[in-house]
Specification:
287 residues, mainly beta, Immunoglobulin-like, 5-stranded antiparallel beta sheet, 1 helix, TMEM132, TMEM132_3rd
Amino acid sequence: MRRIGSVRLHQTSPGQQLDQVRLDSNFVVLVPPGPIRQRATITAFVATSGPSQVDRFTLRVTLKKGVAFLGARPSAPFLWTVSQDERTEGQRVITLQCRRSGPGLGPRPETGFQNVLQVDLEVADLPDLANSRTVSWQVEYPGTGALTVEAETKIHLAQRNMGGIVPLAMDTEILNTAVLTGRTVAMPVKVVTVGSDSAVTDVTESVMCHSADEDVIKVSDRCDYVFVNGKETKGRMRVAVNFTYGHLSAQLDMTVWMPRLPLQVEVSDPELSQIKGWRVPVPAGNQ
């Protein structure tokens, strides 16, 4: 058997789509979009763009309350080395020294980025609906002292025993008579959470909401009803009203029927009679 060459293997990026936060033209941070369960370990990646010629840099990771640093390692050990700085800048700031140890292989076509290192983090339990934790990232270039922007990434957390949210309306159809009468037509809405134990909780006062098309239908500031007030310009089937509770979201599909203007009114009896009780003054010359 004759040796004809060698093949270098490098670690592939995770299968799931990652959120991207760019630090500058050289570096980008890739983080899982979430939601992440409490006490779970998550891995964030720092990657270089294709044309980057950087061979060493310092990475500072600033952890906010509720996030713990577990460790960091190069994504491709034959390309980069990573060491943690012995200097202490407080338990909330982790300083990592990164140096290229081999020639780059170029960006992978499907991502456009080449992973340099991965940082493992752990998030703590949350007693309330603080639905995310923040981690800040900044790169310094040794020798020049140049710094990138300090970019923040959010770790979205899955609340315990919460499977999703459901918006509920008394009816999913509204006839927009407000364009004729000027009187608001409203439909009450409640938003509930459904837990993994099938428990249902009303969270209407805690959600955020918006209408996908306010020319068709609107939603109240407190998210407790949808309405039309006569300022709409059209009707539509399955117009979405979106509700968000923490990292969870759902939509309510409504149908709004709009009168076609001008109205044509047909009456079966063309003879007009005075309406009892009405007194309309008529000028003497018109009698």
